[in-house]
């Protein structure tokens, strides 16, 4: 995530005893959207150098590109070979944020939740939040608030102890912070759950 970030991600190395993982380098966008701009090559070289120096090279040697709607830009995302952490790198800095899969509550399977926080940004005269979600044992179709649908873009997938974990990106307007309805597919069936996206802890969040 870029600067102005909330959430539990940390750029510091975190020792992990995470179980073996089977990474899938990329996940096709379920909405079939046309691919956006790639991550800048010159910044990617810096990220690769930082990953090598920090012992955080990706499993299989592959970095994936996470795309966002609304003009937020792209990030690199990967799972480290040595520790099983999932890391993202933004263009700014560049900066790297990592989190362990062990930090995901086991009881949230199946389920979806915020993963590594969110970043506030302005584009096209509007302020929005770019948020990273993780779904465990299910897939996310989209989020809903006040009758508006917000697509979730699949960015990366891995499997831990037989459970699929997929990272998604979603962008919401700053003025629509609240408890969002999340439309998911679970065991071939549609279901709904909720995710708290009151990211700025506003006193009167919207009712979604």
Please sum up the structure shown.
By secondary structure, the chain is mainly β. The protein has one helix and 14 strands; from the N terminus they run ββαββββββββββββ.
Give a written overview of the molecule.
By secondary structure, the protein is mainly beta. 6% of the residues lie in helices and 46% in strands. It is built from 1 helix and 14 strands; from the N terminus they run ββαββββββββββββ. The radius of gyration is 16 Å and the shape is globular.
Helix/strand layout:
Blueprint: E1 5-6, E2 21-24, H1 41-53, E3 64-67, E4 74-79, E5 86-90, E6 95-99, E7 111-123, E8 126-136, E9 139-145, E10 148-151, E11 153-160, E12 163-173, E13 179-186, E14 189-196
Characteristic terms for this protein:
208 residues; mainly beta; 6-stranded antiparallel beta sheet; 4-stranded antiparallel beta sheet; 1 helix; 14 strands; 46% strand; globular; disordered N terminus
- Shape type: globular
Tally of alpha and pi helices? 1
Rg result: 16 Å
Strand arrangement, largest sheet? Answer: 1-7-8-12-11-2
**In percent terms, what proportion of residues is strand?**
over 45%
Biggest sheet character? 6 strands, antiparallel
State the helical fraction: under 10%
Terminal-residue CA separation? 25 Å
Alpha-beta content class: mainly beta
Q: Give the uncertain stretches in residue-range form.
A: 2-36
Q: What is the string of helix and strand elements?
A: EEHEEEEEEEEEEEE
Tell how many strands the DSSP assignment holds.
14
Mean pLDDT across the residues is 81
């Amino acid at each position: 995530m870029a600067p102005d970030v909330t959430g539990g991600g940390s750029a510091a190395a975190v020792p992990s005893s995470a179980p073996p993982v089977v990474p899938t380098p990329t996940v096709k966008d379920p909405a079939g959207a046309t691919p956006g701009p790639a991550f800048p090559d010159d910044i990617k070289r810096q990220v690769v150098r930082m990953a090598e120096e920090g012992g955080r090279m990706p499993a299989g040697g592959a970095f994936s590109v996470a795309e966002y709607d609304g003009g937020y830009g792209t990030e690199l995302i990967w799972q480290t070979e040595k520790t099983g952490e999932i890391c993202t790198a933004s263009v700014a800095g560049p900066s790297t944020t990592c989190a362990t899969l062990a930090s995901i509550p086991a009881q949230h399977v199946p389920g979806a939740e915020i993963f590594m926080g969110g970043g506030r940004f302005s584009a096209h005269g509007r302020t929005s939040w770019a948020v990273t979600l993780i779904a465990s044992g299910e897939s996310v179709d989209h989020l809903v608030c006040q009758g508006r649908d917000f697509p979730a873009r699949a960015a990366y997938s891995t499997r831990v102890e037989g459970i699929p974990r997929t990272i998604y990106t979603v962008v919401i307007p700053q003025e629509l912070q609240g408890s969002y309805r999340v439309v998911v597919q679970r065991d071939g069936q549609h279901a709904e759950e909720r995710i708290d996206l009151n990211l700025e802890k506003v006193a009167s969040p919207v009712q979604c």
